[in-house]
Amino acid sequence: MTKDGGKSYDFFSNTNGETYVVTKPKTGTVTSSSTDYSGEVAIVGLSSGKNTLILNNYTQDDANYLYGNGATLRYTVKEVVDRAFYNNTSITRVQTTNISTLLDRIGTYCFAGCTNLTVATVGAKTISNNAFYNSGLQALYMNNGVETLGNGALRLCNTLSVVEVPSTTTQLNQWYFWQHTKMTRYNVASGNSKYSSDANGILYDANKLILYHCPPYASQTSLISNLPSTLIRVSANAFNSSKSPGVVIPYGTRVVADSAFFNSSMQYVKIPSTVKLEGCDQLREAKELKELIMAPLSPPLQNPGRLLDVIPNTELKIRVPTSALSSYKNASPWNDPRIVDHITDGAYDVLFAWGTTSTLMVGTILDINSKMAQVTRVNDEYRNRITSQIVTGNITIPASVTYNNN
To answer: Is 242:265 a contact under the CB 8 Å cutoff?
Structure first.
């Protein structure tokens, strides 16, 4: 080991217990300087007896015994190396000293298998693939500056409840969000160009055109009428394991993807006439479903028996448009013996003109018995839908409406 810092070495922090390896040694004559952080280090572990990892932008070698000249050696902290804490059951928390802390990366499998790690506040441009895989993580708070949450970073984090996403994050590579059956909310900072969330803690794209994931324990007791009118697509497994009593998919939504309501506890689901069911298994294992409103005028075709794929709740009513009742009862999978006897009419999407203006109105019957409807104003292309309102009272559906000579 030379005094010009020309070789790597390990040291640890007397204050917090982090163990570092020098990845970019200092060059030249080493002297104390309160501003010289030109060398770079990576975190490789934690001293025995410590259970909290503190992430800092900078650190210093408190011992200095390798140089023997009394110099204080300061470094920039760049990363936590791959597998640094793999299967470490002692670590319980990861935190940053302040919100400006920003390393380059948290390594792959860095905290994988850390079953007693419950909370992580992370400042790093990249949280690498499988970083927290199969850990006991309950809450992940990402500091501003985090850009990427890698593939599998939160996979099999079965106790995960809260994820905070800063405005800088542009890649949430988590196709398995639906596995997080304990989730209560996503909080996405305003100004994020790729993602957003709402008061219910639901995760969307920035413009709320795509619903990625509704946490099973979303803050609202019911999602009826609470989804944004801008919605175009409901992603696969979006409501998987949801504990909400029910949901109304807004009129104008185009796609409800595969397994959207898989294993949910919902009793009420409303699908508007604009929707195409994509894939199959939308309602598989939704054993508590009591009312399915299917407003499409022709029955969506699925693989036989895969729509519900369970013996339906004996109270289940599948309401379809009166004019399409026969079509539904003769189409697969609706003609499945387990399903067909539950099909009845009573699904409506009502289109009418609003007053003396040329603006179209779309009304969706939510509940026939209580005479409750949802009214949404739209333009000619059924886009730019304005926030809906709930109206109650006698609902009159005219025999016909003339609009633009049609």
So the answer is: yes
